[in-house]
Amino acid sequence: MDDRKLTVYNGRGAFKKSPPQILLQGNWLEQAGFSTGDKITVKCQQGQLIITKNEPSAEHEK
């Protein structure tokens, strides 16, 4: 599966400074094993986000 190059945009909201926003959409998500309604975990590290699909048992813990 190929890497995706995206842009971080200004988010919307009633904030003095707009929060950053990343939009992920496309058939490539399904090809990567994600489906509509899946629960995910986003691990945040400096300059890096790791998105993991939750197992069904993990969904009940959150």
TrEMBL record:
GO biological process: RNA metabolic process
Gene Ontology molecular functions: hydrolase activity, acting on ester bonds; RNA binding
Cross-referenced InterPro entries: Toxin_SymE-like (IPR014944)
Domain Toxin SymE-like, residue spans: 4-52
Short name of one Pfam family: SymE_toxin
GO cellular component, one term: cytoplasm
Name recorded for this polypeptide: SymE family type I addiction module toxin
Annotated source species: Clostridium symbiosum (Bacteroides symbiosus)
Top-level taxonomy: Bacteria, Bacillati, Bacillota, Clostridia, Lachnospirales
